[in-house]
Amino acid sequence: MLNILIVDDEEPARNRMRRMVEAIPQLEVVGEASSAFEALDRIRNLNPDVVLLDISMPGMDGMELARVLQKQTTSPAVIFCTAFQDQALDAFDREAVDYLVKPVRAERLEQALGKARRYLGDRQQEEEQHFLRSTVGGKVVLTPLPKVICLLAEDKYTTVVFEGGETVIDESLTDLEQRFPDVFFRIHRNALVSQRRIRGLERTKQGQILVTLSGTERRPEVSRRNASALRKLLSHLS
């Protein structure tokens, strides 16, 4: 289900767009806005997936609104719906998914929304490639890779130690090592560490080799099998 926000200063145009959107399965109009400033408020409160955006509006126009959204970390997909035929290049510079000229045809709108669906799916996949996903209290939590310090296999789960805390994920160390070969380094069959977090090695009185990591008091054990490879990595990192 895609949530749609319609932004146009003319009520008849908004009504016509709403009717066309509601005729397409798996779409829902979650709100309307008659100005760019009202649209920003709606976007913050409603979190739409797609904004159907007019260009010519009093005050801030649609192109300027798209510029504002472009600077935000997360923003909805933008489809321009406008009477102007000569601003498509500017629209795509604003990372618009599509550019529709009024009067918008229903089949052309459906095509554009299909593009938006694919765009959002690709963007989500790309974003999630840089996070580790866990579920905490029924909510999905994404931990950015740069904040991850080490990954420890414990029981049937993998504990993620990151800046400020810990969480648990279902992925195995082997899968994570294969997914992020340039991020994590295997120090033990039960542990991967972030290469950028490695600070050194220390040996205990019992002869164990431990790795020191920035951002945590944990000192995961290094197996003898992996110790020489880790020393080699440290020589390159230093």
H/E order of the elements?
Answer: EHEHEHEHEHEEEEEHEEEEEH
Largest sheet: 5 strands, parallel
Mean pLDDT: 90
Number of domains: 2
The separation of the N and C termini measures: 50 Å
- Poorly predicted spans: none
Considering the protein shown, what is the CATH homologous superfamily of the largest domain?
Response regulator
> Judging by the overall fold, what is the CATH architecture of the largest domain?
3-Layer(aba) Sandwich
Strand content: 25-35%
Please, how many helices? 7
Q: Indicate the overall shape.
A: elongated
CATH topology of the largest domain: Rossmann fold
Helix content: 25-40%
CATH class of the largest domain: Alpha Beta
Which class best fits the helix and strand makeup?
alpha/beta
Strand order of the largest sheet: 2-1-3-4-5
Instruction: Round the Cα radius of gyration to an integer and report it.
Output: 25 Å
Q: Count of DSSP E strands? A: 15
Summary tags:
238 residues, alpha/beta, 15 strands, five-stranded parallel beta sheet, Rossmann fold, OB fold (Dihydrolipoamide Acetyltransferase, E2P), 34% helix
In words, what does this structure look like?
34% of the residues lie in helices and 33% in strands. The protein is an alpha/beta fold. The chain has 2 domains: 2-128, Response regulator (Rossmann fold), CATH 3.40.50.2300; 131-237, LytTr DNA-binding domain (OB fold (Dihydrolipoamide Acetyltransferase, E2P)).
